[in-house]
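Limitations

Structures in this collection are predictions, not experimental determinations, and the ligand pose is part of the prediction. Treat each record accordingly. The example that follows, with heme C as the small molecule, is included so readers can see exactly what is and is not provided: the inputs are given verbatim, and the output is the predicted complex.
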Amino acid sequence: MTSKSLYSKAALLLGSCIASFTLGSTTATADIVYKAGDPSLKPFILGEVPYPKGNKPTPARIKLGKKLFFDPRLSGDGNMSCATCHNPMLGWSDGLPTAKGHKSKVLGRASPVVTNAAYNPVQMWDGREPSIDSQATGPMKNPNEMHTDIPAMLAFINATPEYKKAFANAYPGEELTLDLVGKAIASFERTVISNDSPFDRWVKGDAKAMTKQQIRGFKLFMTPEKGNCALCHSGPNFTDSSFHNLGLASFGKKNPDLGRYKQRPLGIMKGAFKTPTIRDITLSAPYFHDGSAKTLMEVVDHYVKGGVVKTNLSPLMIKAKLNNQEQKDLVAFMEALTTEPKPFDLPILPLSH
Ligand code: HEC
Ligand code: HEC
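Predicted complex:
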C-alpha cells in the first residue's frame, strides 16, 4: 500500500468516526432476499419516532407546534414562517435551488425537507445542530432568515390568549422562552413522517406494492458493483447521517461552500455535506445542497460520472456502473419511496388582538 492510500484510509476512518454519530443500521447487502415480506428486509422498517427527555410529543404539544410552524408572526417582518421554506405543498421544502430568506435574499444552501428529520442524529447540511428541538430556534435568530426580534416574539405569544393557554396546557409550569417555542415546533415536526410508501408496503409483504422495475432498481441501489447507493443512503431512513464530498460542480468555483469542514476542520470534510434521506424524494426537486440537479435522472447521472470536481472527492464516490435502462430502474425505485400524498390540514392560527 502506498503512503498516499494509507493516508486516505486513515483520513477516511478518522473522518467518518468524528463525522458520524450513528451509522444507520446498515444491512449486509449480500444477505438481502429481494422478495416482498422477506425477513431480511426488516431492517428497512422505520422504528418509533425518537424524542428527547422532557419533550414527549403529546397531542397538546403537537397541535401548538403546528400553529407555530405556520405562523408568520414569529418572524421580524411578520411575513415568514417555517412553512415559507418547508412547505407541505412543496414536499416540505420550497422548490428553489437555494432558499430565499429575509427580504427575498438568495441564501447559500437548499432548504432540506423536514420529512423524517426527527430521525436525524444531526441536523443541517453541515450537521451543526444536534436536534430538531435546538434547530427550530435557529431560523428565528438568523437575521437572513426569519429575522425575529426574540423578546417581541415572546411578548406576542404572551399577548395572544390562545397561545398563552396552549403553552400552559402543553408545558405546564415551564417558562415561555425561545427554547420552549423550539420544543413545541419540534413536537409538530415529529409528526412529519414518511413511512408508508410502496416500498414500505412491499417490505411488509405486499408483493404488488412495487413494480418489477422498482424491485430491480432497489437491487441496483443496494449492490456495491452497481449503484452502490446504500453505502451512504443506508438503513430505514436511507441515510448514514454522515458527511461526504460528492464532487458537485459548485465545489470547483472560487471560495466554495466548505460544508462540514467549518464544524470539523479535517481535510476530508472540505466540501462534505450530510447525506439526506431520500424518502419522499420525488416531492422535493431540485436536489443537492446547491440545488444543482433538477431531476432524479440528473442526480443518477452525477453518480454515473463519479462526480465532476475531483479535488477532495470522497473516496467512497466510485462511478456507478449503470446502463441507461438501469438508471431508469434506479429512478423508478426512488419513486417507490414516496408516500402517497394525503391532503394536509393547514392550521387555523390564533387571533391576536
Ligand atoms: C428562509 C428559509 C427558511 C426558513 C424560514 C426556515 N428554514 Fe429550515 N432550513 C432552511 C435551510 C436553507 C436549511 C439548511 C441550512 C444549512 O444546512 O445550512 C434548513 C434546515 C432545516 C432543518 C434541518 C433538516 C435536516 O435534515 O438537516 C430543519 C429541521 C428545519 N430547517 C426546520 C425549520 C423550522 C422549524 C423553521 C421555523 C422555525 C425553519 N426551518 C425555517 C431554510 C429555512
Ligand atoms: C459517498 C456517499 C454517497 C453515495 C455512494 C451516494 N450518495 Fe446520494 N447523497 C450523498 C450526499 C452526501 C448527498 C448530499 C450531497 C450534497 O448536496 O452536497 C446525497 C444526495 C442525494 C440525493 C439528493 C437528495 C436531496 O434531498 O437533495 C439523491 C436523490 C441521492 N443522493 C441518491 C443517490 C443514489 C441513487 C445513489 C447511488 C447511485 C447515491 N445517492 C449514492 C451521499 C451519497
